[in-house]
Design brief:
Elements (H helix, E strand, L loop, with lengths): L8 H4 L3 H8 L3 E5 L4 E3 L7 E7 L2 E6 L5 E7 L7 H4 L7 E5 L3 E7 H10 L1 H27 L2 H16 L3 E3 L2 H8 L3 H13 L3 E4 L2 E4 L2 H7 L3 H13 L5
Antiparallel strand pairs: 1-7, 2-6, 3-7, 4-5, 4-6, 8-10, 9-10
Helix pairs in contact: 4-5, 5-10, 6-8, 6-9, 7-8
Length: 236
């Protein structure tokens, strides 16, 4: 087993005997903060499997505004649009924070889905989880207050960050949530006043994780339950 293999749930679902050839097609790639990994309208050249860090999946509007509709961390892959035929779309991929990913060429990703059934099964399972999360996200954006959504986003980021501190600006958080910067500032201020987080000069610190979970909308726990389906596929 390669050291990184257990750090991504998709890769960890592939038995070692089947991973040898697939592993040769992967290469490490450092995720840099706010780096564009794929531009809207361009075909995907690479498919990423984060092991540390987060990739935001955003849709781009005509006025240039970008809104996050999904995130990909160490539980998944950016290859889902390829398997549903979205080779050209208004989707863009942005590295949300510094980290590391394994990546392979998009054409190799598609061929390995045909060659390695365990890999294909893990990607299909993740695709189902992703669509469930998209449905939950659509409901969340319509039904839940921005304070709850902000708490949910911070929890999801905390899960992937590997520590209680991570970089995030209010401008970026507003973009991810699709709300105004003053709205995000007010939500962050309320959470900070309650002692749940601390925010200073672009650095977010989670102070009271259990209380932040209480403050978040129900969607966070739904997302965790979906990810449990992937964890059940682990081979090691």
């Amino acid at each position: 087993m390669l050291p990184y293999q257990s750090e991504n749930l998709i890769l960890a679902a592939v038995p070692p005997r089947a991973f040898e050839g697939l592993g040769m097609l992967l290469e490490p790639y450092p995720l840099r903060m706010r780096e564009n990994l794929q531009e809207p309208g361009e075909p995907a050249e690479w498919v990423y499997f984060p092991t540390h860090g987060i990739v935001s999946v955003l849709t781009v509007l005509e006025n240039g505004m970008m809104i996050e509709f999904a995130t990909v961390g160490r539980e998944g892959t950016t290859g889902v649009p390829l398997i549903v035929g979205l080779e050209h779309s208004n989707i863009t991929l942005v590295s949300q924070m510094p980290g590391l990913a394994m990546r392979m060429r998009a054409r190799h990703f598609m061929s390995e889905l045909e060659r390695v059934p365990e890999f294909a099964a893990a990607v299909r399972c993740y695709s189902g989880v992703m669509f469930a999360l998209l449905a939950q996200s659509a409901a969340c954006n319509r039904a839940h207050h921005v304070d709850e959504r902000c708490a949910r986003w911070l929890l999801m980021t905390h899960d992937q960050a590997g520590g209680n501190e991570f970089p995030v600006t209010q401008e970026f958080l507003a973009q991810m949530l699709g709300v105004s910067r003053p709205g995000v500032a007010a939500s962050a201020a309320a959470l900070q006043k309650a002692g749940l987080i601390a925010y200073h000069r672009g650095e977010m610190t989670i102070v009271d994780r259990p209380a932040l979970e209480v403050a978040a909308c129900e969607c966070y726990h739904v997302i965790v339950q979906q990810f449990d389906r992937l964890r059940a596929l682990r081979q090691y």
